[in-house]
Design goal:
It is built from 1 helix and 7 strands. Strand 5 (66-69) and strand 6 form a beta hairpin. It has one helix spanning 6-9; strands at 2-4, 16-18, 39-40, 53-54, 66-69, 72-76, 96-99. It folds into 2 domains: 2-39, no CATH class; 45-101, Ribbon (Seminal Fluid Protein  PDC-109 (Domain B)), CATH 2.10.10. 4% of the residues lie in helices and 23% in strands.
Amino acid sequence: MRRWSRDRDGGSGPDWGGGHFHPGQRSRPPGIETASIWAIIDEEHAGTLEDPIPAKKNMEYFKGKYYSEGDKIYLCTRDSEMPLAYLPSELIGQYFEEVEN
């Protein structure tokens, strides 16, 4: 997976990765306009109840992992298999269930 490096490529914000990289993409930095090329990735959090992954739009979700949104925690009940433009609170009953804190 091609990684977007803030140090090398510039910009700020979350880490991004893309599976369909070609050299011309350097002029297409990660963002909502390039959602078909780049996806948000998080390698800093375990996805456990004690260390949930902070959810962001344009992120791929994985079954059995925990995600946080605001002060709530959600358990993913099925793999999304691709980045989704929705947060867990918008996918209750389809991909997520809210976990009681």
